[in-house]
Amino acid sequence: MSNVIVVGTQWGDEGKGKIVDWLSDQADLVVRFQGGHNAGHTLVIDGNVFKLSLLPSGIVRKDTVVLIGNGVVIDPFHLLKEIDELKDKNIPISPANLIISDSAFLILPIHQIVDAAREKQNGSKKIGTTGRGIGPAYEDKIGRRGVRVCDFFDKKEFENKIQNIYDFHNIWLDAIGEKKELKKNMINDLWNIGKVIMSYTKPSWLVINDYNKAGSNILFEGAQGVFLDVDHGTYPYVTSSNTVASQAGIGSGIGPTAMSYTLGITKAYTTRVGSGPFPTEDISNSGVMLGERGHEFGTVTGRQRRCGWFDSILVKQAVAISNIDGIALTKLDVLDGFKEIKICVGYEINSIKYNYLPSSSNQQNKIQPIYEKMKGWKGSVAGVKDMADLPIEAKRYVKRIEKLIECKVILISTSPERSDTILLENPFQYK
Ligand code: GDP
Ligand code: IMO
Ligand code: MG
After folding, report:
1. Which residues line the pocket of ligand 1, CB cutoff 6 A?
2. DSSP 72
3. Count of helix runs (H) and strand runs (E) in the chain
4. Using one digit for the tens of pLDDT, what is the confidence trace for 318-338?
């Protein structure tokens, strides 16, 4: 039995989907434990591309069951759309391979309206959210007025709860001239989708408990990345959930001592989509090249991702915060052809040196990165499946990263394809 947690160690889009899909070959159950359809995970299997947002990345494996845990926020309209899109690609989805927590919270259409209105109000200080209603849905959860999947049991109660949420948000929307009516047909549409969703539901903790008792392998799939975490990230430029490894248990219903390995997914450079501090952002030609070669466009919104060099201070912090045992280093092939590769090894703010990311946004914005330069490699590492076939300069780059972040690299990804992966240590066979 092994319980492996996968988390992003930067600002998301590290290639978690590819690695989770690859590892789920060994998993009996793959669990999403936070976030919602703000996530965008791309899998490429024998040239076939799958884009997932809400469904765990293990869904495309024939013998893997997936669970959407209680910590996830679910847009019912989106969920059905994603299920249908996958069915159209001949991926069978039924209650036999998809389980949805009955205590997960719902994203309602009003949450998307509030999300957009807040961004408009924030003007130049906007977060750059995905516009999916994630923040307002989590606010209602913490505010104890949220609607959960299990509320689909009783129509009257369900209607009352939705009315209550609309009343709550309409006070502010009215004040800014954006009041929204609660439409009867929306409630009916939701209720009808609810009936379909109910056929997939179970208590998340109970499912996990049963798999654990049976000695199964469970893979906990994090969305976003450590620096988008609402507590540990670049607040307020974060998402509204906890994205760190500790959330795996809270968002699914299992305690921390049950976990056997935490795998951090780390891009060989850095990207960020949306606003907020980004110390190693490179807006010169090099940054443009990283973006072009890495096809750095958001899966969810299509937005261009901001690009920059590897930031070892950031990743070292993520390793500490999530107690990461090993790193999967992705997109190494994107650095092909760079004569010189820069790594950030420290920060300077007003002539004072820092070896960690200070918490204040104001300070984060003033960071001057301290770089070390490394020689690039000739030729390409794209598609390499064996460490021995990497050029010496690429091996040196990996070694240097390991030293700086104080964590070993146990997996290297060299293309979007599932099989183009170098495995050095198997997280499911650890300890
Ligand atoms: P996630 O959100 O962490 O799952 O990452 P995304 O799927 O949003 O973004 C990662 C992108 O990089 C996707 O388009 C992947 O297909 C692609 N990708 C993953 N690993 C590699 C790799 O090693 N090399 C290259 N070139 N692309 C990769
Ligand atoms: P995956 O799982 C990258 C970012 C948004 C925005 C901030 C808040 O694909 O790595 P939200 O809609 O969550 O309120 O937006 O968080 N963001 C992501 N950036 N990858 C993601 O997910 C993200 N999910 C949210 O761009 O800056
Ligand atoms: Mg993504």
Report:
1. 8, 12-18, 40-42, 44, 295, 299, 330-331, 333-334, 413-416
2. S
3. 12, 20
4. 999 999 999 999 999 999 999
